[in-house]
Amino acid sequence: MYGSQGDGGASLFSGGGFMPSQATQTPDSSFSKSRGAQGVLPLTVKQISEAYHSNDDKSNFVVDGVDASNVRLRGLVMNKVEKVTDVTFTLDDGTGRIEVHRWVNETSDTNEMALIQNGMYVTINGSLKGFQGKKHVVAFSVRPVIDFNEITLHFIECIHVHLENTRPKVLGGIPAQVQANPISGTVTPTRTPVSNQFSSRSSSSGSETDVYKLVLDVFQEPPNLAREHGLHVEEVARRLGLPVEKIKDAIDYHVDVGHIYSTIDDNHYKSACNG
User: Fold this and answer.
1) Which long-range CB contacts under 8 A does 142-146 form with residues at least 24 apart?
2) Which among 207, 225, 206 is positioned nearest to 216, based on CA atoms?
3) What angle do CA 81, 85, 88 make, to 5 degrees?
4) What is the DSSP secondary-structure string of 29-96?
5) What are 48-66's pLDDT values in tens digits?
6) Are strands 70-82 and 97-103 parallel, antiparallel or unpaired?
7) Closest CA to 12 of 22, 2, 27
8) Residues whose CB falls within 8 Å of the CB of residue 118, separated by 6 or more in sequence, listed in order
9) Cα 190-192-196 angle, rounded to 5 deg
10) What is the pTM of this model?
């Protein structure tokens, strides 16, 4: 499934840069025992680039409305530089690059970082920091990726957490704001007042569900599944004889739940179904 060391130029998911020794290594049991990885938020570098400060003192970052003080990243190690007191390197996860610092204060820290080489895929748990407008991670754990399924799993976790933290939930007919607890990793829906946006979507004409289904059916027609760039919004509107605004509303819904996705621009969409 994954490439060998000779595939160093391959993409993130092809296993490019995978080192033979990496497949047989086992994590050192002494790695950062006192700095457990609990309370970390799985993120991509791109998500981190869009993080914002939670308060005026700019001490903490927020992603999707959730505290992102402690984060987990997986990606490729580049430009490793070793110093007496710390090790720095760049992490590339396919969505962007970020600088990582690892302080070396104990023998276990030294042993941990001795295993890490350029071209290796690693899992990083650390604190998200900012300095002079540039974000970086201060790692408290860096370990080699043993199974490349961990990379795929990480991206799935990032998508899942993002959706849970941004999608409104319905609780007893009342939309709920989802809040993720970065300490326990649990997601807790809490009741909130009905918003105007939710009310208009659920009550207007009483036929929104039918429109959503009609729009999705068009995207899932075999000929449209085969189209490289999918369908234009106006083409769908013409097919169904409905206003473009209603089509866009239905498309926004299906994008939010993962049924369809945009392709070449904000007007072309394609079904996520493989047919």
Assistant:
1) 142/100, 142/102, 142/112, 142/113, 142/116, 143/27, 143/28, 143/31, 143/112, 144/22, 144/25, 144/27, 144/115, 144/116, 144/120, 145/22, 145/74, 145/120, 145/121, 146/22, 146/23, 146/25, 146/26, 146/27
2) 225
3) 30
4) TTTTTTS--TT-EE--HHHHHT-EESSTT---EEETTEE-SEEEEEEEEEEEEE-SSEEEEEEE-SS-
5) 888 887 665 566 788 888 8
6) unpaired
7) 2
8) 77, 78, 79, 80, 89
9) 145
10) 0.49
Residue 32 has pLDDT above 60, yes or no: no
Closest to 71 measured CA to CA, from 104, 120, 27, 38: 38
Residue 106 three-state SS = coil
Cβ neighbour number for residue 152 with a 10 Å cutoff: 13
Amino acid at the residue 31: F
Write out 157-184 in H/E/C secondary structure.
HHHHHHHHHHCCEEECCEEEEEEECCCC
